[in-house]
Write a structure and sequence with these properties.
The complex is a heterodimer of chains A (591) and B (321). Chain A is an alpha+beta fold. Chain A has four domains: 2-22 and 561-590; 27-41 and 203-279 and 523-560, 3-Layer(aba) Sandwich (D-Maltodextrin-Binding Protein, domain 2), CATH 3.40.190.10; 60-195, Dipeptide-binding Protein, Domain 1 (Dipeptide-binding Protein, domain 1, Alpha-Beta Complex); 288-511, Dipeptide-binding Protein, domain 3. Chain A has helices at 2-15, 53-58, 106-115, 166-169, 181-184, 242-250, 266-270, 303-312, 315-322, 355-364, 389-403, 416-425, 448-451, 469-480, 485-500, 566-590, and strands at 30-35, 63-65, 71-73, 76-81, 87-92, 139-140, 143-152, 155-160, 204-210, 214-219, 233-238, 280-281, 287-293, 328-329, 376-384, 407-414, 433-439, 505-510, 513-514, 521-523, 539-541. Chain B is 78% helix and 0% strand. Chain B is built from twelve helices and no strands. Chain B starts with a helix and ends in a 6-residue tail after the last helix. The chains are: A alpha+beta (591), B mainly alpha (321).
């Protein structure tokens, strides 16, 4: 009986589904973002995790970005630099308020940049450019940023000890969200109850977080950008299994997957007219699929060996076999197929695949072919079993290519945390080579800690034992001595050229994201630029009816009735079973 | 030995079992590679910041000191504080527990009712077509991994034939209340319950069928039939009651496997229960959370085994050890 009823309810609900129509911007609708990665530990703005979607929907930065990743106004409506580059003045918007109604002022910016009284040594916005100093966070009074002051309620002045152009690229909500001073000042930021019911200035306000299931954000009716946002709700749905996530996309439960699809599922999703074609983005922030060496091992101290590895790998073939042809062969330490191409020396390209030359280099380095056909045996080729299948596929193709020159490797699949520990933290390091997919922005300086030998502490994403005093000096110069943008770009190009000849790691290919977005949603989506961050303020629902419309949407500011607790449902289910059992029993008795 | 002494003895035996679980669980979790402090501090944290988080979490203390503290807290009913979610572990388990219990209870109910019913019917006509078909189906179901069954059900009944939702506990787009919400949750329950119940149902079927076949050959059943008692009464009133002991045993023993099955089922269906909490905590190296879930499920299994033994002893007075 009950299943029949449920089927009937479902069928009636499905009858209302109509094909979306493409129209101009309009208001309303719910946008469901599906994520396979685990939920963020906390929701508030200063969370420093990989996943910042809730935060970036609820908070703003001083700047935002256009599609070419140029800074554009956000909470700062304009800014200027002193001629020596040491003083930056930001003029703030005057109509922004926090979600609790308190006006946003310069005091919030001063607080958020870590110069208020905090009870912990963890500064806010530590991710801003955390490792530009010599092993220290950049935004500490000792390094780089001398002070942040507020001459009036809507003006903020940054005073630098060195001109530092990288910072502007990192002042968006993704890396440096502005938090509410009135909520956090004088409290322990770790235990502040507003960490999980954040109060921001952003286009969407916190409504509820059902842990393990979803986070619901609702439209901010007093958002300082007039006419935005269009959507009524943005919902983040945590679906840990990638196959279930794709099924949810197809069944209409999810509208967008920012983390991207595994390539092998592309044909399946492209067969659905609601998504075809799934856009493939090479994001400006850039992701590279790389092969890391354990440069602490004597084997990899010899540049000829590292170069031989590079020559033994046919990068285009890796893309063809492991990534379904999606991606571009890497040319430098930044993804040259993206907006970061300007930082790569234009003359750069890796030498072509050449097994013979690779063998010669290994001979010269003393690794001759043994009677059993091997030169080198590497039993610890680590691959993350949580990453897209392309990562394992690339590892397998590379393993087979290396075997052709007598380098025998054994792939060991481990979970992400174990791999990060074995590669970056453990001493001695517990790996020989490892596949590694890593972000390279938003600032190109983000790559510094992977190559600069000053960043060799046991912490993730640091240097894996490579040392080159020349490039170390160049990194330091670009961080603290570049006084113009041209100088900065030139220094980055010098770094790229220097490192290209030293092979501290092998960049294999520039990764592209296959990000399915339901066609009933229109407008620009910032996720196209940075997959891990929002917001959805420029997105609108173009369908006339269907899954994305909400039912009984209430005022965003009024108290929302809470759903029944789960215990009540258990009682209801048990009651239904008991009633059913009673009817069966009484029927038998009558017989 | 009387029932009371037997019960006391069994309860006392459960204590070292739980302690053993704590010792193994604690050291197994802490010996896995990976650093929760690094996970919490984030990808761009400096070593100083990681060191601060490490100290803050108490992970800088010797392992034995950490273990001693854990046991002390456990004895006070405190399962610790989640590193990652910054909340007491007990609170987090408590928040998710109703969802898991709802799933597990429904799966248990489905497995028990249908497993026993099909087992009785199959045994009533042994080696008939019905018996052969259900036996083969039960064997097949028994051999299928839960996560695979879940994926098949999602593809079949949520994607290609969109009858049921593919994931979650309720429709997140809609603000449903009252009876609508209850129906919506029940609708979301169908596929995960089927997935979780299938293996258990097959097991219950096999056990019931085997026990019934043995009972149906006994003299008192022949006598009942000779007296003209209806076949329904013979099967369900006279025979099933006597065949229930092994069913009770298996029901108690399967508590552990149902809860571990729930870890995968909850992950496949994005069901926000304790199993999924444990799954995500493992990847975050959230030691207290993993240990809390591990301890909780272990205590539940030890408890279920204890209750089963006591029921067994109570129902069959011959059992005293």
């Amino acid at each position: 009986m009950l299943p029949t009823l449920l089927v009937a309810v479902m069928l009636i609900a499905m009858m209302g589904t109509a094909k979306a129509q493409v129209q101009g911007p309009k208001y309303g609708g719910s946008f469901v973002i599906g994520q396979a990665s685990s939920e963020p530990p906390i929701l508030t703005f200063w969370t420093n995790t990989f996943d910042r979607i809730p935060g970036t929907e609820m908070f703003n930065g001083l700047v935002s970005y256009d599609n070419n990743y140029n800074p554009i106004p956000d909470l700062a409506q304009s800014w200027s630099f002193s001629p020596d580059g040491l003083t930056w003045t930001f003029n703030l918007v005057r109509n922004a308020t926090w979600h609790d109604g308190v006006p946003f002022t310069a005091a919030d910016v001063v607080f958020s940049y870590g110069f208020s009284t905090h009870q912990t040594p963890l500064s806010f916005n530590q991710s801003l450019i955390p490792h530009t100093g010599e092993g220290q966070s950049f935004f500490t009074p000792a390094v780089g940023l001398a002070s942040v002051s507020a001459p009036d309620a809507y003006t903020v002045v940054f005073h630098w000890t060195h001109p530092y152009f990288e910072a502007l690229v990192n002042m968006g909500a993704f890396a440096a969200p502005i938090g509410p001073a009135h909520i956090y000042n004088g409290t322990n930021v770790f235990s502040n109850p507003y960490n999980n019911k954040p109060v921001g200035t952003g286009p969407f306000m916190f409504k509820e977080w059902v842990r393990g299931d979803h986070v619901t954000l609702v439209k901010n009716p007093t958002y300082f950008k007039k006419g935005r946002p269009y959507l009524d709700q943005v919902i983040l749905k945590a679906i840990p299994d990638p196959n279930t996530l794709v099924a949810a996309l197809q069944s209409g439960d999810v509208d967008f997957i920012p983390e991207g699809l595994p390539y092998e599922l592309l044909p399946q999703i492209n067969s659905n007219p609601q998504f075809n074609p799934v856009p493939l983005h090479t994001t400006n922030i850039g992701m590279l699929d790389r092969l890391l060496f354990n440069n602490d091992e004597p084997l990899f101290k010899d540049v000829r060996v590292r170069q031989a590895f590079s020559l033994a790998i046919d990068r285009q073939q890796v893309i063809n076999v492991a990534a379904g042809g999606h991606g571009t062969v890497s040319k430098c330490i930044w993804p040259a197929s993206t907006g970061m191409a300007q930082y790569c020396d234009p003359s750069l390209t890796y030498p072509e695949y050449n097994v013979t030359k690779a063998g010669q280099l290994l001979d010269q380095a003393g690794y001759r072919v043994q009677p059993n056909g091997t030169r080198i045996v590497l039993p610890r080729f680590l691959v993350d079993n949580g990453e897209p299948a392309a990562s394992l596929g690339a590892g397998q193709v590379i393993r087979d290519m290396l075997a052709k020159v007598g380098i025998m490797t054994t792939i060991v699949q481990v979970d992400g945390n174990t791999r990060l520990n074995n590669v970056f933290v453990a001493r001695p390091r517990l790996f020989d080579i490892s596949m590694h997919k890593g972000r390279t922005g938003p600032s190109p300086l983000f790559a510094r800690k992977q190559f600069d030998s000053n960043f060799n502490a046991p912490a993730i994403f640091t240097n894996t034992g490579f040392s080159d005093p020349v490039s170390d000096r160049l990194w330091s110069q670009v961080a603290f001595n570049a006084t113009t943008n041209a100088q900065r770009v030139q220094l980055f190009q010098q770094i790229s050229k220097r490192l290209a000849g030293l092979y501290p790691e092998l960049e294999i290919y520039d990764y592209v994201y296959a990000q399915p977005l339901r066609h009933s949603f229109q407008g620009s989506l910032f996720y196209a630029i940075i997959p891990e961050s929002g917001p959805s303020e420029n997105l609108w629902f173009a369908g006339t009816a269907g899954a994305a419309t909400t039912t009984s949407m209430t005022s965003t500011t009024s108290a929302t009735p809470t759903a029944l607790p789960s215990w009540a449902i258990i009682v209801a289910v048990i009651a239904i079973l008991l009633v059913g059992a009673y009817f069966v029993y009484s029927k038998k008795k009558k017989k | 030995m009387g029932f009371k002494q037997y019960a006391v003895k069994r309860v006392l035996e459960a204590i070292p079992a739980i302690l053993g679980v704590l010792v193994i669980g604690f050291f197994a979790v802490h010996l896995t590679p990976g650093d929760p402090a690094q996970y919490i501090a984030g990808e761009s944290a400096s070593p100083d910041e990681v060191a601060f988080v490490t100290e803050n979490l108490g992970l800088d203390k010797p392992l034995l000191t950490q273990f001693s503290l854990y046991i002390q807290h456990f004895l006070h009913g405190d399962l610790g504080y989640s590193f990652v979610q910054a909340q007491p572990v007990a609170d987090l388990i408590w928040q998710r527990l109703p969802n898991t219990i709802m799933l597990v209870l429904c799966a248990y109910a489905v497995a028990l009712v249908f497993g026993v019913m099909l087992g009785v019917l199959a045994a009533s006509k042994p080696y008939s077509t019905f018996d052969n078909v259900t036996s083969i189906l039960a064997l097949t179901a028994y051999g299928m991994p839960g996560f695979w069954v879940g994926q098949l059900l999602i593809l079949g009944l949520a994607v290609y034939l969109p009858i049921f939702p593919s994931n979650g506990m309720s429709s997140v787009r809609s603000n449903l209340l009252g009876a609508d919400y209850v129906l919506n949750v029940a609708w979301h329950l169908v596929l995960p319950v089927l997935t979780l119940a299938l293996v258990d149902l097959a097991e219950q079927f096999r056990i019931t069928r085997g026990a019934m076949l043995e009972i149906l050959n006994q003299d008192f059943v022949t006598t009942a039939r000779a007296k003209g008692v209806s076949e329904g009464k013979v099967l369900f009133r006279h025979s099933l009651r006597n065949a229930l002991l092994p069913v009770i045993t298996i029901t108690g023993l399967r508590v552990g496997s149902v809860f571990t099955g729930a870890i995968l089922t909850e992950t496949v269906f994005a069901w926000p229960g304790v199993g999924r909490l444990m799954f995500t905590s493992v990847f975050a190296r959230d030691y207290p959370m993993i240990l809390g879930c591990f301890t909780f499920i272990s205590v539940l299994v030890v408890g279920a085994s204890l209750v089963t033994d006591l029921c067994y002893a109570y129902l069959d007075p011959r059992i005293r050890y």
